[in-house]
Amino acid sequence: MSLPARPRTFSGIKPTGVAHLGNYLGAMKRWVDEQDEYDNIYCVVDLHGMTEPFDPAELRRETRGMFATLLAVGLDPDRCVLFAQSHVHEHAELCWILNCITPVGWLERMTQFKDKSRKQSDRERISAGLLDYPVLMAADIILYDAHVVPVGEDQKQHVELTRDIAARFNRVFGDTFVVPEPRIQEAGARIMGLDDPTRKMSKSDDAPNRSIFITDEPDAIRRKIARAATDSRREIRFDPERAGLFNLLTILQVITNDSNDAIERRYEGKGYGDLKRDLADAVVAHLAPIQERYRSLMANPDDLDREMARGAERAAAIARPVMARVRKAVGLA
Ligand code: ATP
Ligand code: LTN
Question: Residue 125, exposed/middle/buried by CB under 10 A (0-12, 13-18, 19+)?
Fold first, then answer.
């Protein structure tokens, strides 16, 4: 099996709403910062967006919106392959084959499945797709011989399952797949809700002051940060036990790239009001150019569609030979 000179990364994001600061700081920003270190493939996983109840018009709109967001935050389609999952049919095909070697018990043990299915009181509304979600994710990754999968903390278990599936396939059918590694960055891996630091910031959550969305107006950003939950202590320190404050400091640290020490020193003798004001300024300033690029990309849908089609062709060119290898290994060719 021929491997690329630079290690290959693959990662994906669901088009289930507007991206928030957790997606950006926990995943996208890092993808952008590391563009030259890896051979990168990034994907808007629209098939994953169908695993919970969805509306077709919304899915179509949000897939394009997420694609534009990835370009707006700085992914350069000349330095990475950027595409929508459903445009490359091999994902669904490989998913089926992997389904046939994946024990159901492995899937029923996944935390995300347990959480999401527990939230749904009517069992008739939990789709087989929700249970199968991690097998499709495994197909996404191993279809490209990816070595490294940069994700937030919440997806680590799914990448570990991918390793188990790839290793099992290799054992049963002979060496076919690269067994990938998850890569979770230290800071920003889990950005919490501003109103409730025990819940993660999330796209599909409608608590009004929980998440800062990439497209939020400056006023909304300032309001959400001003109302963020903290505690009644005074000194400003990176203390994970003080979850609300820790979350605000983490956001500031990842956005400014300043060290924890420098930030703590800056706020000696100062209060939460100062910190929140500075943080709001930093977030507003950081997002401004991203929002401008996003608006201009969304105003030119034909250009976006062209870029999506180009990405899909480049992705398919990598996926096709891997799929041919799989078909041969399992006796379909
Ligand atoms: P949803 O709420 O619709 O389930 P989500 O907000 O969790 O979605 P995903 O599309 O599942 O977002 O995740 C995209 C990427 O963002 C993944 O790498 C994931 O680990 C990361 N991510 C999601 N939420 C956070 C968060 N709160 N903090 C840090 N990283 C996050
Ligand atoms: N499940 C992931 C999205 C995803 C993904 C992938 C991430 C789908 N396929 C492949 C990394 C690699 C999530 O972030 N919720």
Answer: exposed
The best mutation among 10, 23, 28, 114 to test binding of ligand 1, ranked by most ligand atoms within 8 Å of the C-beta, falls on 23
Determine whether the shortest distance from the Cβ of 27 to ligand 2 is under 6 A: no
Any residues with Cβ below 6 Å from ligand 1, and which?
A: 13-14, 16-17, 22-23, 26-27, 151-152, 154-155, 189-191, 200-204
**What is the number of the ligand 1 atom nearest to the C-alpha of 188?**
29
CATH level 3 topology of 218-295: Tyrosyl-Transfer RNA Synthetase (1.10.240)
Token representation of residue 246: 């820790």
Q: Where in the chain is the domain with CATH 3.40.50.620?
A: 8-190+301-330
Mean pLDDT by 10 residues, the chain (333 residues): 76 94 91 92 98 96 97 96 98 98 97 91 89 98 96 92 98 97 82 94 84 96 96 92 96 94 95 96 97 97 96 98 98 96
Torsion, Cα 292 298 299 303, to 10 degrees, reads: 120
Of these residues, 116, 119, 224, 328, which one is catalytic? 116
Distance of CA 5 to the CA centre of its chain: 25
pLDDT of residue 185: 79
CATH class label, 8-190+301-330: alpha beta
Residues of the chain with CATH 1.10.240.10: 218-295
Task: In the chain, count H helices and then E strands.
Answer: 13, 5
pLDDT at 290: 97
